[in-house]
Amino acid sequence: MTEGASGARSDMSGGTGTSVPSAELRLRVAARVACTEAEGPGRRFAVWVQGCGLRCPGCCNPEFFAREGGESITVATLADELRLARDLHALDGLTVLGGEPSEQPAAVAALCRAARALCLGTIVFTGRTHAELQALPEARALLEAADTLVDGRFDARLREPADGRRWIGSSNQQIVHLTSRHADPALWRGRDHVELQIDGAGRLTAHGAPDLLRRVLKSMS
């Protein structure tokens, strides 16, 4: 057992293991949405992790850089939320964004395994490249548990064109299919959009294509 990026103790053995998360394994989470169509193909449970040491200039989520922010949640709790959301919303998958998921690899891998056990696809957006993750022994479990990576540092000088790939920030980033689950190129074509959601406590959340989201929020101010 070692200390993960969130400070929680994590099983970093690298194996796929069981789909039932350890009761003490925790993930530091910046935000989560039970059902969205703005963070990958189909209806997805989206989790934004807290903490990122890469700090790409122009990142749309700089408030997620600090490791001490967000909320520490057990992966078992998130897996229960995922199961309930799947049953309620007929989900297609789980998307993990950030922040930087590869800085909490054991917990993210465990959550992805829980999603797979529910027959859901898994997509991980990471600022590290596939090759960089392959060189990190602690990331092996994450690579084994993800169906698709969207990898590479965001580069504000190379923004993905409006008629390019959906959900991709900059043209240098790659879609790496580790399984065939999301490999159909048609899934990644089309126009980006944003979503505004109001939760049970009356809180408004907004997410989706960053540039479009900024315009929408500016028009509401």
- What is the arithmetic mean of pLDDT? 86
Helix-strand pattern, N to C? EEEEEHEHEHHEEEEH
Number of domains: 1
Radius of gyration: 16 Å
DSSP E strands, number: 11
Please summarize the sheet with the most strands: 7 strands, mixed
Structural class, by secondary structure, is alpha/beta
Shape: globular
Low-confidence stretches: 1-18
Strand content: 15-25%
Binned, the helix content reads 10-25%
Straight-line distance between termini: 48 Å
> How many helices does DSSP assign?
5
Write a concise synopsis of the structure shown.
Residues 1-20 are annotated as: Disordered. This protein is of the alpha/beta class. The protein has helices at residues 75-89, 105-117, 130-134, 140-145, 210-220; strands spanning 2-3, 9-10, 26-36, 44-49, 71-74, 93-97, 121-125, 148-151, 174-177, 194-198, 204-208.
